Amino acid sequence: MSETPLPLVRTVADLRAQVRAWRAEGLRVGFVPTMGALHEGHLSLVRLALANADRAVASVFVNPTQFGPNEDFDAYPRGEQRDAELLAGAGCHLLYAPTVSEMYPEGYATKVTVARITEPLDGSARPGHFDGVSTVVTKLLLQCGPDVAVFGEKDFQQLQVIRRMVRDLDIPVEVLGAPTARADDGLALSSRNAYLSAAERAVAAKLNFTLRAAIAHLQAGHAVAAVETAAVAALDEAGFDRVDYVEVRDPEDLSRLGPGPLAGPARILAAAVIGRTRLIDNMAV
């Protein structure tokens, strides 16, 4: 244990010992995996965990295996002391902050791959990303053994991948999705928002506006393909440097919908880059 605003453990053995002690008291355990650089969105996940469990564990681990060779692993914002203070203020009971060597010891040779649902969207834009996510989340769930694990809907594809993985591997945990936390202008909260300059931040807010406009067109009966094309054009015009995708997908298996009007529920998902910041967002239709 270390001197932080809340108890902190760095090894699997110490994490399991604490969870075992809580279980001996008959307590339910909730778990919130994070990569740190915490904000209100993460804290809302902790509060949802506490609404469904007696004790909350949060992990902070910047997972190297989910970053591509030209992505921002080295630059990703880190601040363990601040994270610990925020978690304590949200009512968290334990911080798990393992080292890379604890998660991936010498000789580590196993990878968890989820097929199909990982292939479109971020799976196409970030090859290998979801193998890293699936592997680290599987390990974290097995290390902690919680009753409930909470993930944000901002990373909607990730949430659906984890749900598929938990079902397929019979991991005994209830996966809860938490609504996306947003700034006053609608921008989804993200640790990577810290990269944005003032001018880029103004452009970033237009992602939310564009998706809301697209939803209005879909609900009015416009063809899916036309709405997607118009949304990409709107983001280009707004000043984004690159649009990876704007796509309307089935909310469960993320299969492609359209090209004509919608016949049922859907999810619109987008990823766009401005400067060195890649933003993602999604909304229910």
Q: What is the count of helical runs?
A: 9
Percent of residues in helices: 25-40%
The rounded distance between the terminal residues' Cα atoms is: 46 Å
Query: Looking at this structure, what is the CATH superfamily of the largest domain?
Result: HUPs
Question: What secondary-structure arrangement, pairings included, does this model have?
Answer:
Blueprint: E1 8-9, H1 12-24, E2 29-34, H2 40-51, E3 55-60, H3 80-89, E4 94-96, H4 100-103, H5 122-125, H6 129-144, E5 148-152, H7 156-169, E6 174-178, H8 198-219, H9 224-238, E7 242-249, E8 267-274, E9 277-284
What is the structure about, briefly put?
With 285 residues, the protein is an alpha/beta fold.
Descriptive key words:
globular, 2 domains, 9 helices, Pantoate--beta-alanine Ligase, Chain: A,domain 2, 285 residues, alpha/beta, six-stranded parallel sheet, Rossmann fold, three-stranded antiparallel sheet, 39% helix
Would you kindly provide a written description of the structure presented here, covering whatever features stand out?
- The chain has 285 residues and is an alpha/beta fold.
- The protein folds into 2 domains: 8-178, HUPs (Rossmann fold, 3-Layer(aba) Sandwich), CATH 3.40.50.620; 191-279, Pantoate--beta-alanine Ligase, Chain: A,domain 2, CATH 3.30.1300.
- The protein is built from 9 helices and 9 strands.
- The protein has helices at residues 12-24, 40-51, 80-89, 100-103, 122-125, 129-144, 156-169, 198-219, 224-238; strands spanning 8-9, 29-34, 55-60, 94-96, 148-152, 174-178, 242-249, 267-274, 277-284.
- The protein has a 6-stranded parallel sheet with strand order 1-4-3-2-5-6, with helices on both faces.
- Strand 3, helix 3 and strand 4 form a beta-alpha-beta unit.
- The longest helix has 22 residues, at 198-219.
- The chain is globular, with a radius of gyration of 19 Å.
- The N and C termini lie far apart (46 Å).
- The mean pLDDT is 96.
